[in-house]
Amino acid sequence: MSKSVARQALSAAEIEQFGAEIDALRERTLADIGEADARYIRRIHATVRYTELAGRGLLFFGIFPPAWVLGTLLLALSKILENMELGHNVMHGQYDWMNDPRFDGKTYEWDIVGTSDSWRKTHNFKHHTYTNVKGMDDDIGYGLLRLFPEQRWRPFFLGQPLYAVVFALLFQWGVAIQDLRLGAYFAGRISRDELGEQFRPIGRKMRRQLLKDYVFFPLVAGPFFLPVLLGNLVANGLRNLWTFMIIFCGHFTAKVAVFPKSVLKDESRGQWYLRQLLGSSNLRGGRVFHILSGNLSHQIEHHLFPDIPARRYAALSKEIQAICQRYGLHYNTGSLWVQFGQVVWRILRYALPSKPASLEGRSLVSD
């Protein structure tokens, strides 16, 4: 088998063997999970809390520029860690085995305007089950962007370079409304009352977050109301930009594949693993970078093992790369700026008219 030519499909026998190797790696890792993983997530939880306290405390002295800058950065750091390495990973059930209510994936509520229940549905279930399957995975363009040639072009997409910037700045709001059936509402397929019923829990969460960041803490600051308000606004904006960049680099780089619904028919475990591999991309970096990304810099490993503690992905990535090499499969990884440059290229290129590429006949199993 050639190792120089990357493959998009394997024979049925190869897929079965490939799946067995990934399964074996998963079982070995699960058997090793224990107290070291528990200590790690407790430290992350404590870091989130202490950086938030320090950041908010410094913002109360925000009339002094050094205090405002440091306070804003610490608050942004807390929000990034809470979203990426704590909330996202906890909600995948990575720490349910601890039986600690703070890390219960079914009840954790995170610090953004979107609800965790909505995220568990759109992300944990739909995206991770139907990764990059056109018409099934709502994360393909988020209903706003054309990022693959297989998506049909419409004049609306000419403005997507602007939409993408706004989406990045307001990313938590896009996540919040992702599960709302806005397209069905505008098409007249659901009523205003039905849309209102869907929006009700999201609206409550939005109101709570807005009151916390832009009313309660600024009012507590008294005469420093405006510096605290601005610090919260900037911290949320920095978190939005960072999460947008990391998530888009994990899904929309140059060699990421998109699939037809037909791949789901009688899909084996090995085929599911192969689709996760071909539909994801990684980022190279150091330990701090990986923590700040919630280890979504190891997006391939996350899609293969979403319920394994993310701190394990760095070690798993070495074994996954070795497996890919044996089967001649492309392991998509690169630096943040190279991968993000490819994302920007997609946004710009597919804003322009082009005939949609066909998915007909595309398969993970070779003849």
TrEMBL record:
Pfam families: FA_desaturase. Keywords: Membrane, Transmembrane, Transmembrane helix. It comes from the Bacteria. Residues 66-333 form the Fatty acid desaturase domain. The chain crosses the membrane at residues 58-81, 162-182, 214-235, 241-259. This is Acyl-CoA desaturase.
